[in-house]
Amino acid sequence: MEMSPFKWKNDFPVGIQELDDQHKDFFDILGRLGEAAGGNKGMKVVGPALDQLSEYSRRHFVEEENWLKVMR
Question: Where along the chain do its domains lie?
Answer without folding.
Answer: 17-71
